[in-house]
Structures are given as structure tokens and as C-alpha cells.
Automatic annotation (TrEMBL):
Stretch list, region Disordered: 208-242
InterPro entries, alphabetized: GAP1-N2
Transmembrane segments: 276-295
All residue ranges annotated as the GTPase-associated protein 1 N-terminal domain in the record: 2-101
Organism lineage string: Bacteria, Pseudomonadati, Verrucomicrobiota, Opitutia, Puniceicoccales
Origin superkingdom: Bacteria
Keywords on record: Membrane, Transmembrane, Transmembrane helix
Name of a matching Pfam family: GAP1-N2
Protein's name according to its UniProt entry: GTPase-associated protein 1 N-terminal domain-containing protein
Length: 677
């Protein structure tokens, strides 16, 4: 199995439930071409499925291939017809000979990569139009094997006749399987040789029959059918009319050879002699056949006895080897039985049983001391793993394989997500894990032990400092997430200033910088004056602008809203020389108006209180910031991020415990290291 890394868990379960496949009663393998619309907790999806027999998989077992494309309903806009994708997309896999894995970014595909429908072989069109846009009941088609593609090709043409915004509203399947629900499909095919455990409403159904012509049609583009074609009866009408006018000739019964009975021929000497000769020849042939059969049966019995003896010996030897290997496995793969197990594995490999060979290779890797191979992880053969509810075990005698003491037994997908360890200290995130077993509880306990050890410096801080750090986090989030403050806090962007020029400047870790103006009014004046200083235009002199602002209206503005309003009026008096500067200041003034100017007196009053509230919130946050150091805040951030990541990993472990791919990996593996801030 291969899948995309970002699939939601409920969608993964849905795709797995849709991957079942059934042959018909005669061993035939139908081609499943399916479009379903499903609604899950994570959203509504369109799922295109192509399921067919694919021979042997990577483990040499017969298998079928289920290839699914799933995407959200809003992503279907602009995509080709779903039936056209099922028939003509070049990306459908015909086989899969690789082990299960996660698809990488470079394996992305393009749904527009379709084969030309004109170049594809044109199938006969024995089906009438299946449904129009108003059809609300399920249409069922009786099919035979190999008629699945013609049915979906017919549905492709039918769907193309609908408006573009309705083409993804119709679900269908080329063949109903025992695991399907007919009510999920607008159109569906049904094969009589594939028994179903439910009743299917076949009223008003259309019958799909193969074309009488055995020669496939020449691939040509679809052409409009002629309005009418004269039938054979119409062409023969003149001849029929002439025959009706011809006279009728009656033959007497005594001269009609069809009615006259032939008299019985008398038995004479000639007939008797012929019968005797036939009997003699027939008896001779029977004797010859009996002699040949007797001779051949004698030879065959001797050969059969020899072959039977050889087969019996081989079967007994194979059975003994299998029982010996089973005893070795049940004993926990003891090291004293390893030499005999090697011979058994080599014998079983010759008869196509490769699992023992993989186990021997895995056990040999455990005998290498301090192997660097375990830093990346070594895969465990699947059939060695024992699943017991929420606990998974690796039944190996630990005393015989000392290397297991420094290893952890983990699901492969979960091991790649553990990124908590800074590399310092003796404990890693999996140091407290058992060596040969895994459970959600033991994994969570190991993570908590790691967090407790990693937080030792943080927990040694004074209780008052810890409380101040928590209060600072809460206050910072309340300010940043307050939508009323958003326009003012984002105002610096229209002046092409960096993030550090915000009224509330934070560093990358969220620490407030203290070297900024505490007053919002001073911040707004400084923002404009420094921006004016970037221009060489004499009409954009910052000193002249501030002088004009100070004498505006005869009163000196005091509150943040009064200052913002006066600055807006002063910006209206700017007369830049260049068009570029004029356009830029026009955009700034529009954004300023949106943030600070209200036509309604009540709204203007509320805005004034909001700006004063922002000043108070910054003052409170600054007071909290002054009560701890940067290093103390760094410890707090690391602890907070670590707790959040541990919660995410614990949630992932609930899904990973049922996976099939497991590894043993060094508990001090560099793969567990991270770059936490």
C-alpha cells in the first residue's frame, strides 16, 4: 500500500474499506471503475477508484490493485469528467510490486494528463441514454465480463451532455460488489455471475448486450448518427408486393414426396452379410483398444508409484522443516537453535517460503555489537510481530541478544515523527520504552519521563517567575488575537516597515522588545516622520509636516484618536512632486482612514476607547515582560513547545499501533533530535 502523507485518518479508513475486491463465480475478474461521493468528519470528498486483478504483489502472493484518487468537493471545479479520468488518465497504476510506503512530494500527479478520447478504441453503443439531468432513481445495467469499459464510456458521453457544474454530481460504478450499497450510486452495473448478499431493484432497467459484430470498429471520432436509415423490410417491400400478386400452384397429395411414405425394404442375404462383417470389425477394434489400455495402465502404475513415493518423501521433509521452524519461533528464537534454523531457512527458501530468511537476517543484525545501522532503524519482519489488542510484542529471548537493551521497538511511521530531543542529557524521548514491546501507555510514559528530565532547569525557577511567564503568555495571546486591535497592529506594513516596527514588536520566540514608544500617539507620529525622511522631495519634509500638524485646528492633539485624526488631515495637505510618491501616499491615507476615521459619532467614540485600551494592554504586557529574563523565557518556550509536541505524538500513537511496518531503533538515535526554539 502507498498513500499520501497528509491524508486525514477518517479518509484513510474510508479508502481501505473501499479497496475490497471479489471475483465472479467462474473465477472471472471484473474491472471496477467507480466514482463515489462521501461525507466524513474531515469534509466531503470525491473518490475515483480503479480496482482490478494485478497478479502477484511484492511478497509473491496473488493480489488485486486498488488505486484511489480522493479530493475535496471544491477541488473538483475545473477538473475533467470523472468517467473520462477513470478511462483515460495516464497515471493509473497497472501493477504494484513495491512494499507499503508513503508517497513523496516528487510523485505528485496532474489530472489533466489524459489520453485523447478520439485516440481510444471506440466501443459499440448498444446502450440507450441512461438518464437525463432530472433522473432521480437508480439505473441498473445487466453486464457480462469485459463490458465494464463500454458502460463507463457511455456514462462519459452522458455526463458530458450535462452542464459543467453538474458533471461531478453523479456517482456510478461499473460493477456492484458484495461490499457495495446500490443506493450510493446513480448508475451501476451488475453481473449475474457475481452473487450479491442483497436485493437490487431492477425495475425500469436497461439491458446491456454485446454488439453482434465481432470485428472492432475502426477508431474514428464520434460523428452524428443519421436521422433515419431504411430498414431491410422497407427495401424488400416491392418484391413482397409482386409475390402477393403471383398465382398459387397446388400439388396433389399423392405426388408430394414430402407427404408420401416410403415402403419398408425387405431384409435379404445381402443385408445379413453386411451386418455380420460390421460386427466382426467392431469386435476386433474393441479387443485392440482393451489390450492397449491394459499395457499402458501397467506402465503408468509403476511410474505413478515411483512419483508418489518421491512426492511423499518431499512433503514429509517440508512438513518437518516447517514444524522445526515453528518450534524455533515459539521458543523465542534462541541463539543455540540458530545454526539449525539457518539450514531450515535455506531449505524453505528453495520452495518459495522467504519469511525465515528475513528472520535470520534480522537476528544476525542483532548479533553485531554497537552497529550504526540501528541509528536509522532496522525493519522487523512482519510475521515476527504479535498483536494483542493495544499491545504489540516482539517475542525474542532478550538475554540471547544483548543489543536489544539499547533498542526501542516502534511503529515506523511514529519513529520518523519523534523530534523532541536536543541531544543533551542521557534521556531521549524513548529511553524509558521497553525493548521488545510497545503500547500507548508505555510510549506516553516514556515521553513524560523525558519531558520531566528536560524541564529540570525550568522547574527550578521560582514559583512567582513561573506564574509571571504563564501570565505573560496569556496576555500576549489575548492582545494578538483581539480583532479590534488588528488594524492598528498591522499598520506598519503599508509603510513597508519590518515586523520590528509594529506597535507591539516581538522576536521570533514571542518575546516583547522594550525599546519602542509606549505611547500610541508618539508611535503614529514617529511612523509617518521616519517614512517622510526616506524621500528627497522638499515637499515631503518631515519637520514641515509635523509643524503643519502641530498648528492644525489651533489645539494640540492629546489622545491617540485625536492624534490619528490630525495626522490624517495633515496628510491631505501633502503635495509630492513625483507621481509614484503621490500614489504611494494616497494608498497610505486610504489605509489610515480605514483604521482611524469613522463617519458615525458613536463608532468614532468606541474607536477612541479601543485605542486607549490598546495602550493599557501594552503597558500591562510591558510590566510582565520586565519581571523575567530572556533566558528564563527561553526555558518557558521550550517547555511549552515540548508539551504541545508530546500531546501530538500521543495522539498519533493511537493510529500507529495498528500499523504493519515496525522497526527496532537505537534509543539514542540522532533521528530523535530537533531544533526547538
Amino acid at each position: 500500500m502507498a498513500r499520501d502523507r497528509d491524508l486525514p485518518p477518517d479518509l484513510i479508513s474510508e479508502l481501505e474499506s473501499q479497496s475490497r475486491y471479489t471475483q465472479d463465480s467462474e473465477g472471472g475478474s471484473p474491472l471496477i471503475l467507480r466514482h463515489r461521493i462521501v461525507t466524513l468528519r474531515s469534509g466531503t470528498y470525491h473518490i475515483l477508484s480503479r480496482i482490478h486483478e494485478s497478479g502477484a504483489d511484492y511478497s509473491k502472493r496473488n493480489n488485486h490493485l486498488s488505486h484511489h484518487l480522493a479530493f475535496r468537493a471544491e477541488d473538483a471545479i475545473g477538473l475533467p469528467n470523472p468517467a473520462a479520468i477513470l478511462l483515460n488518465w495516464r497515471g493509473w497504476r497497472k501493477s504494484w510490486d513495491e512494499p507499503p510506503r508513503i508517497l513523496e512530494a516528487f510523485e505528485k500527479f496532474d489530472l489533466q494528463d489524459l489520453e485523447s478520447s478520439w485516440a481510444a478504441p471506440q466501443h459499440p453503443r448498444p446502450i440507450e441514454a441512461a438518464a437525463d439531468a432530472a433522473g432521480a432513481f437508480t439505473k441498473v445495467y445487466n453486464l457480462s465480463l469485459s463490458e465494464e469499459r463500454p458502460l463507463v464510456d457511455h456514462l462519459r458521453r452522458t455526463i458530458n451532455s450535462f452542464p459543467a457544474d453538474q458533471r461531478w454530481s453523479y456517482s456510478f460504478t461499473s460493477c456492484l460488489l458484495p461490499t457495495d450499497q446500490p443506493q450510493d450510486y446513480v448508475w451501476c452495473g451488475r453481473m449475474s455471475k457475481l452473487p450479491l448478499p442483497y436485493e437490487v431493484d431492477t425495475t425500469s432497467r436497461h439491458i446491456l448486450k454485446p454488439s453482434k459484430s465481432s470485428t472492432p470498429a475502426t477508431p474514428v471520432a464520434d460523428k452524428p448518427e443519421p436521422i433515419a436509415t431504411p430498414s431491410a423490410e422497407a427495401k424488400s417491400a416491392p418484391a413482397s408486393a409482386m409475390l402477393k400478386k403471383a398465382p398459387t400452384v397446388e400439388i396433389p397429395e399423392e405426388f408430394d414426396h414430402k407427404r408420401v411414405k416410403r415402403p419398408r425394404r425387405p431384409i435379404g442375404q445381402k443385408e445379413v452379410s453386411r451386418s455380420i462383417n460390421i460386427a466382426i470389425v467392431g469386435g476386433g477394434l474393441v479387443c485392440i483398444i482393451l489390450v492397449l489400455f491394459f499395457v499402458k495402465s501397467q506402465k503408468g502404475s509403476s511410474v505413478a508409484k515411483t512419483r508418489h513415493a518421491e512426492t511423499t518423501t518431499h512433503v514429509e521433509s517440508l512438513q518437518d522443516r516447517l514444524e522445526a521452524w515453528q518450534s524455533f519461533a515459539e521458543a523465542g528464537y534462541p541463539i543455540e537453535g540458530l545454526p539449525d534454523a539457518r539450514e531450515t531457512a535455506a531449505f524453505l527458501a528453495k520452495v518459495g517460503e522467504d519469511h525465515p530468511t528475513y528472520v535470520i537476517q534480522f537476528l544476525d543484525s542483532l548479533l553485531v555489537k554497537d552497529s550504526a545501522e540501528f541509528d536509522k532503524g532496522v525493519a522487523v519482519p512482519r510475521r515476527m510481530i504479535k498483536f494483542n489488542g493495544s499491545e504489540v510484542t516482539l517475542p525474542i529471548v532478550q538475554t540471547d541478544y544483548p543489543e536489544l537493551r539499547r533498542l526501542a521497538f516502534l511503529p515506523n511511521s511514529l519513529a520518523t515523527e519523534i523530534d523532541l530531543w536536543s541531544g543533551q542529557g542521557l534521556l531521549s524521548p524513548v529511553s524509558a520504552m521497553p525493548n521488545t514491546s510497545f503500547s500507548i501507555e508505555s510510549f506516553q510514559g516514556s515521553l513524560q519521563a523525558f519531558a520531566l528530565n528536560a524541564d529540570s532547569d525550568y522547574q527550578r525557577l521560582a514559583d512567582e517567575t513561573l506564574q509571571v511567564l504563564r501570565d505573560y503568555d496569556e496576555k500576549r495571546l489575548s492582545i494578538v488575537e483581539n480583532k479590534r486591535f488588528e488594524e492598528v497592529l498591522e499598520l506598519y506594513r503599508v509603510f513597508d516597515q519590518p515586523d520590528l516596527r509594529s506597535y507591539l514588536p516581538f522576536d521570533e520566540s514571542g518575546l516583547l522588545l522594550l525599546d519602542q514608544q509606549p505611547s500610541l500617539a508618539d508611535y503614529l507620529k514617529d511612523l509617518i516622520s521616519k517614512h517622510l525622511a526616506r524621500y528627497s522631495d522638499p515637499k515631503l519634509d518631515p519637520d514641515a509636516f509635523l509643524a503643519a500638524y502641530a498648528h492644525l485646528g489651533g489645539n494640540t492633539p492629546e489622545s491617540p484618536l485625536e492624534v490619528a485624526t490630525a495626522l490624517y488631515q495633515a496628510m491631505g495637505k501633502l503635495q509630492p512632486t513625483s507621481r509614484t510618491a503621490a500614489s504611494h501616499w494616497k494608498n497610505i491615507r486610504i489605509r489610515w482612514q480605514y483604521a482611524f476615521i469613522r463617519s458615525d459619532l458613536m463608532e468614532q467614540t468606541i474607536l477612541g476607547y479601543t485605542l486607549e485600551g490598546l495602550e493599557r494592554e501594552k503597558a500591562a504586557l510591558t510590566s510582565l515582560r520586565q519581571q523575567f529574563t530572556k533566558d528564563q523565557f527561553q526555558l518557558h518556550v521550550e517547555s511549552r513547545n515540548r508539551i504541545q509536541r508530546i500531546a501530538e505524538l500521543t495522539e498519533q500513537s493511537h493510529y500507529a499501533v495498528s500499523e504493519k511496518d515496525w522497526i527496532v531503533i537505537s534509543k539514542q538515535s540522532p533521528n530523535f533530535r530537533s531544533d526547538l526554539p
